[in-house]
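re: the backbone from monday

yeah here it is again, tokenized this time
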């Protein structure tokens, strides 16, 4: 049984469908990438998973629980974590406060210690305001926050988009660590090649439909894929 399962998902923001009949699976321990051109519907699909899309048809389940009609808040308690691309930490709060304001975490102090083991750089910054962190540290804090409730699946929409090239590698390293901590990953990325290199499988969207999917290594060596979606280098 898959951790996340999307069965024939269609939907959009009004009566016009933006995504069409998309089926997708994430298994426990997997990193799965969604790639595709601008406007293909990647963020829309992620919103459907998170419960943020106004109109959705099809079936979504998380760890054998149907979440199709569940409110976004309840999906969070069911084990979905989301790191938005921007505004993912509270700038005016300290690092410690950012970790301690996460809702619904039991024994939050000891959980914070556990999470911080993965982000030693943050331990020295606990009393600093998040707004004064470097871009890379802030991204680590965003990940740490998302990990506080011990989610089953982390959803990332372009985690490297706003970052300087030097930080991109770092973020991909953070993503690679997640399955080792028992958290599967569903990630949208513009940097499709780099994302697939650390992924188990990938799905390619075009105009709201899934046009290609498979093992990441197969997608990386697929000539159609390389030409259309990965550039020729
Ligand atoms: N809030 C919204 N209301 C109405 N239409 C929207 C909304 N958000 C996105 N769309 C439309 O849905 C389509 C898909 O957008 P989406 O943001 O899902 O694409 P994307 O693949 O994430 O693109 P990008 O790579 O640029 O982030 C676009 O035509 C867009 O204009
Ligand atoms: Mg998007």
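seq for it, each position gets an aa:
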């Amino acid at each position: 049984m898959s951790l996340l399962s999307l069965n024939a998902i269609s939907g959009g923001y009004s009566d016009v469908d933006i995504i069409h009949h998309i089926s997708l699976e994430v298994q426990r321990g997997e990193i799965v990438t969604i790639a595709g051109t601008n406007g293909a519907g990647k963020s829309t699909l992620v919103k459907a998973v998170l419960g943020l899309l106004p109109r959705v048809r099809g079936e979504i389940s998380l760890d054998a629980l149907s979440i199709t009609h569940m409110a976004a808040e309840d999906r969070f308690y069911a084990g979905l974590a989301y790191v938005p691309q921007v505004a993912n930490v509270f700038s005016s709060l300290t690092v410690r406060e950012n970790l301690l304001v996460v809702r619904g975490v039991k024994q939050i102090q000891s959980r914070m210690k556990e999470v911080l083991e993965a982000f030693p750089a943050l331990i020295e910054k606990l009393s600093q305001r998040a707004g004064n962190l470097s871009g890379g540290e802030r991204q680590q804090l965003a990940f740490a926050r998302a990990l506080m409730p011990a989610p089953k699946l982390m959803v990332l929409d372009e985690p490297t988009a706003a970052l300087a090239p030097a930080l991109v590698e770092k973020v991909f390293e953070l993503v690679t660590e997640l399955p080792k901590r028992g958290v599967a990953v569903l990630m949208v990325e513009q940097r499709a090649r780099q994302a697939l290199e650390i992924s188990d499988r990938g799905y390619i969207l075009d105009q709201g439909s899934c046009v290609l999917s498979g093992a990441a290594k197969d997608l990386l060596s697929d000539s159609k894929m390389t030409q259309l979606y990965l550039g020729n280098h």
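The mean pLDDT is 93. Residues 102 and 150 are 11 Å apart (CA to CA).
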